[in-house]
Amino acid sequence: MTWDIVAKKIAEDEREKLHNQLYHSQKMDMVCQLAAGLAHEINNPLNFIAINFANIQEAVSDLKTMVKEYQTVTKKLEEGTFSPLDLQKLSQKETELALDTLVNDIPEILAESQRGFNRITTIINGIRNLSYQDVHDKKIDFDLNKGIIDILALTRHEYRLFANVKTALGNLPPIHCNPEQIKQVLFNLIVNSIHAIQSQRRRSNGIISIHTWFDRTHLFCSITDDGPGIPDAIRKSIFNPFFTTKSPGKGTGLGLSISWDIIVTKHNGRLWVETPAEGGTVFTFSLPR
Question: How many angstroms separate the Cα of 93 from the Cα of each of 77, 81, 128, 185?
């Protein structure tokens, strides 16, 4: 009996070690998927801000020119030497520099630049929140909707050319969970929907819908896409480790199996998939309150 207990303990330790290795492998795959796209996502608003900065420099130079003209006019008025010709020259200078347009454009340029800064801030915060290292299996109160928003910010470069994302996020109470693991699940499910739509090579964008709600005992999140769906023949296998329908090099086959382990084993929740009659796929998970 003693040796049976020791053998069982060794097996459990080995299984936990393998689980940790699989989590790390899938997390690294997730990081690799994000890296190139995030660089592009940050570069776009940076280029936009750089162009606006050049426009602001030009606008400030023109304003300095006008200020000097006004200072000259003010000095002549004080000396009593101001003439109608001076007024005509001042008016011509205002027309030449399109002063009215210049004054109206500056606030718009600043507002557009602020939107660029906000976009970069959103991306950086999403990266920081995703990379936050919780103590292994430590659970804290977490805003599931905030996690969804963070993941959508990080995956925008993946879906913007292939899908439009719609959200219906309920007014959820905090959920006691491991945030890093739940965000890993959200990433896996959202990217899975993106790749399903992308595989159809359709001319128009697909649709991904994310819905959250809760009842007395559980919080729920569903991620729906209008992609090709999942055939009945393989639906029972999609949560198996290393099972994938993607071509070699396109995935590890770990995303859905790790998501199932996180939700079901780590958090005592449920994760299931449905293929509606009208097509597409719906992944839904629930977490106990």
Answer: 18, 19, 50, 62
What superfamily does domain 139-288 belong to in CATH? Histidine kinase-like ATPase, C-terminal domain (3.30.565.10)
Contacts of 150 (CB under 8 A, 6+ apart): 125, 126, 129, 130, 183
Q: Where are the domains of the chain?
A: 1-131, 139-288
* The pairing of beta strand 218-225 with beta strand 270-274: unpaired
> What DSSP element (H or E) covers 233?
helix 232-235
Question: What's at 244, amino acid-wise?
Answer: T
**DSSP structural state of residue 242:** T
- Eight-class DSSP state of 113: H
Decide if 207 contacts 196 (C-beta within 8 A).
no
Strand partners, 165: 208
Q: Which tokens hold the place of 209?
A: 């819908």
> Residue 225: which H helix or E strand, with range?
strand 218-225
Encode pLDDT of 183-225 as tens digits.
Answer: 889 988 998 899 889 888 888 899 999 999 999 999 999 999 9
**Separation between Cα atoms, residue 221 and residue 189, nearest integer Å:** 11
For the chain, the maximum distance between any two Cα atoms, rounded to a whole number of angstroms, is: 112
Between the alpha carbon of residue 260 and those of residues 17, 19, 46, 237, 270, the distances in Å are: 18, 12, 38, 12, 8
**Alpha-carbon span 38 to 147, nearest angstrom:** 17
Q: Calculate the CA 132 to chain-centre distance.
A: 16
Contact indicator for 261, 19 with CB cutoff of 8 Å: yes
The model's pLDDT over 78-93, given as tens digits with 9 standing for 90+, comes to 888 888 888 888 888 8
Q: What is the pLDDT of residues 2-25, one digit of tens each?
A: 777 767 777 666 666 666 656 655
Q: How far apart are CA 50 and CA 35, in angstroms?
A: 22
